[in-house]
From TrEMBL, chain A:
This is Urea transport system ATP-binding protein. SMART domains: AAA. One of its GO terms (cellular component) is plasma membrane. Keywords: ATP-binding, Nucleotide-binding, Transport. The lineage of its organism: Bacteria, Pseudomonadati, Pseudomonadota, Alphaproteobacteria, Hyphomicrobiales. InterPro entries: AAA+_ATPase, ABC_AA/LPS_Transport, ABC_transporter-like_ATP-bd, ABC_transptr_urea_ATP-bd_UrtD, P-loop_NTPase. Pfam families: ABC_tran. SUPFAM superfamilies: P-loop containing nucleoside triphosphate hydrolases. NCBIfam families: urea_trans_UrtD. The keyword ATP-binding applies. Residues 14-254 form the ABC transporter domain. One of its GO terms (molecular function) is ATP binding.
UniProtKB/TrEMBL annotation, chain B:
Keywords: Cell membrane, Membrane, Transmembrane, Transmembrane helix. It comes from Shinella granuli. One of its GO terms (cellular component) is plasma membrane. The chain crosses the membrane at residues 54-85, 129-153, 160-178, 209-229, 259-277, 332-353. The keyword Ribonucleoprotein does not apply. The keyword Transferase does not apply. It is a multi-pass membrane protein. Pfam families: BPD_transp_2 (PF02653). It comes from the Bacteria. This is Amino acid/amide ABC transporter membrane protein 2 (HAAT family). One of its GO terms (molecular function) is branched-chain amino acid transmembrane transporter activity. It is found in: Cell membrane. The lineage of its organism: Bacteria, Pseudomonadati, Pseudomonadota, Alphaproteobacteria, Hyphomicrobiales.
Length: 254, 387
């Protein structure tokens, strides 16, 4: 497995090899290895405590691994960088619970997310340019929030907050998007729309989606990685993975 | 660049407040100096100094609000920056005394002669020049805030832990300034000031000028703070307050954002302290008292944290109340202050200005909704007319 993973390193967008981390003796990740190709949309499933969120924490620099390699675009060692640097490199992250700036308007949320100079003085003297305005309007229509642009984010519905957060990630113009449970708490209609939105986004960038909703993953129709106890249990199409005996025992059968 | 920064800064409420402050800066000295003491509009000098002091408190509260109201950093040590600015000004005023001190030493302040010191310590050099002292009143608090903030924010010390170490900072400075061999007059501090920039510090004219300077400093700081919080940077500050990790994952260096606000705030507190000392005529280590910093938090909370006018209103109201209250029932002031804090926290969590603003916004929204409804009812009643 490891040699196979190593060969893929130069051409990959995200490369994890033998990543382990433990908290107070509990092994959250145990020699986790997988590779995401450029432009790929990948779904990650697994029972609670399988290490899905820890994996995202490691990729985005929130947690440092005890051992193992994490590389972005084949050459950039992510274990040496912090959250802000990793975000500036082009990795966006959506949290499990929608996390937007509640006391700002929808428009301001996107303006802050826009991939522009992020220093103290460049933001202090920032002026909205016509280009930035057009970009924000484009994102507003992509995430279907044009008519709510002047409303406070706090007043959006749960599903709209999820979309706003996805819009903020788009504004960041990442090459790799990590999305944690995007349809949790959404209605069926919203779930279906979110699947369309994510497929649309994946046309121009790589996306990793962590999700529990099997129907949603079937809608996405992409390669699935199943995690359990901090390592990869099975990888392949949804039908292949859901037929796997170990997956049924560990996850689906429960 | 600067013009757009200013254009954003000058909202309607800010313009009104700045206008009021500038009008006061002109009017109060005029009424003090140009009217006879028995004139009905005469403002006595003690009132000028008292309100001049309140204005410096308002500036201190505004400084705290920038970090607490807009960035969520509850500093319980802001009086330390205020006191440091005050000491810088006090050192200048001490050196202006010259040979007029009790011991008549032309170079050394009285307390140094008393301690049998032979020469001026190195850190007292330059304080005979006003510009140098004024610069230090801003730079020293700024530098302390920079060093303190650099370590605290980089190590991601947050919430109550940060509050506790800011409190420890001011307490450590309190103990240090109490020591005689620190060279700042120890327990007694610096006092017996004679003149400032060549003018007698007790004279009505100087008192009025200090009042005007305080009002102008507050107005300028209000414009700068407003420019900061209305810029994109200010929106990021609020983002840090409400969802710090989101800000980080958007690629902003949260520690730099906090550090800038903290340093600017400390410098404003330093200016406030430098204006305070000549008006009260003394600076001693008591200004570093942890309780002083906590009082600033109360003024800000009463007026409304996260609004710019709130801390100004709060500082003036609470201190005005304190002056009246301590004259009438000196024993009970601390109970009243504690009670006020509890009441505001429970019933006016947004403070006076925040609650008023919420009321006006709700009324505006209600009127808007009502107008839409009426328009609809009108259209429904007369379908032909609507077409």
């Amino acid at each position: 497995m490891n040699t196979l993973v190593s060969n893929a390193k130069p051409s990959s967008i995200l490369y994890l090899d033998g990543v382990s981390v433990s908290f107070d003796g509990f092994k959250a990740l145990n020699a986790l290895s997988f590779v995401i190709e450029p432009g790929e949309l990948r779904a990650i499933i697994g029972p609670n405590g399988a290490g899905k969120t820890t994996m995202m924490d490691i990729i985005t620099g929130k947690t440092r691994p005890d051992s193992g390699e994490v590389f972005f675009k084949g050459t950039i060692d992510l274990t040496q960088k912090d959250e802000a640097e990793i975000a500036q490199l082009g990795i966006g992250r959506k949290f499990q619970k929608p996390t937007v700036f509640e006391s700002h308007t929808v428009w301001d949320n996107l303006e802050l997310a826009l991939n522009r100079k992020r220093g103290v003085f460049s933001t202090l003297f920032y002026r909205l340019t016509a280009g930035d305005k057009a970009r924000i309007e484009e994102i507003l229509s992509t995430v279907r929030l044009m008519n709510r642009k002047d409303d406070l984010a706090a007043n959006l519905s749960h599903g709209q907050k999820q979309w706003l957060e996805i819009g903020m990630l788009l504004a960041q113009e990442p090459e790799l998007l990590l999305v944690d449970e995007p349809v949790a708490g959404m209605t069926d209609a919203e779930t279906a729309e979110t699947a369309i939105l994510l497929k649309e986004i994946a046309k121009t960038r790589s996306v990793v989606v962590v999700e529990h909703d099997m129907g949603f993953i079937r809608d996405l129709g992409v390669k699935v990685t199943c995690l359990a106890e901090g390592s990869v249990l099975a990888e392949g199409s949804i039908d292949f993975v859901s037929a796997d005996q170990k997956v049924i025992e560990n996850y689906l059968g429960r | 660049m600067i013009t757009s920064f200013l254009a954003k800064a000058l909202g309607r409420n800010i313009v009104i407040t700045v206008a009021i402050l500038l009008a006061l800066a002109a009017l109060v000295p005029a009424l003090n100096l140009l009217t006879a003491p028995d004139h009905p509009l005469h403002v006595p000098t003690y009132i000028v100094s008292l309100f001049g002091k309140y204005l410096t408190y308002a500036l201190l509260a505004l400084a705290l609000d920038l970090v607490w109201g807009f960035c969520g950093i509850l500093s319980l040590g802001h009086a330390a920056f205020f006191a440091l600015g005050g000491y810088a000004m006090g050192m200048y005023l001490m050196r202006q005394i010259g040979a007029r001190g009790s011991y008549g030493n032309p170079l050394l302040p009285d307390f140094m002669v008393f301690l049998n010191w032979k020469e001026l310590p190195w850190f007292w050099q330059g304080f005979d020049m006003f510009w140098f002292a004024a610069l230090m009143a801003v730079l020293v608090p700024g530098l302390l805030a920079f060093v303190f903030g650099w370590f605290a924010f980089r190590s991601r010390v947050n919430g109550v832990y940060l509050s506790i170490i800011t409190q420890a900072m001011t307490f450590a400075l309190l103990l240090a300034f109490f020591r005689n061999d620190m060279g700042f007059g120890g327990n007694n501090g610096l006092t017996d000031f004679k003149d400032i920039l060549g003018f007698n510090i007790q004279s009505n004219g100087t008192r009025s000028a200090l009042f005007a300077a305080s009002a102008i400093a507050l107005a300028l700081s209000l414009v700068v703070t407003s420019g900061i919080v209305r810029s994109k940077y200010g929106k990021i500050l609020v983002g840090v307050r409400d969802a710090e990790s989101r800000t980080r994952f958007l690629g902003y260096r949260v520690e730099h954002m906090k550090l800038f606000a903290f340093v600017v705030s400390a410098m404003m507190a330093g200016v406030a302290g430098a204006l305070y000392v000549p008006q009260v005529g003394i600076i001693n280590p008591g200004e570093f008292e942890p309780a002083n910093s906590i009082e600033v938090v109360i003024w800000t909370a009463v007026g409304g944290r996260g609004t710019l006018i709130g801390p100004i209103v709060g500082a003036i109201l609470v201190n005005g109340g304190k002056s009246v209250f301590t004259a009438a029932f000196p024993e009970f002031w601390l109970f009243a202050l504690g009670g006020l804090f509890v009441l505001v926290t429970l019933f006016l969590p947004r403070g006076i200005v925040g609650t008023a603003r919420q009321f006006f916004e709700r009324r505006k929204e209600y009127r808007k909704a009502k107008a839409v409804e009426e328009a609809r009812a009108f259209a429904a009643a007369e379908p032909q007319a609507a077409e």
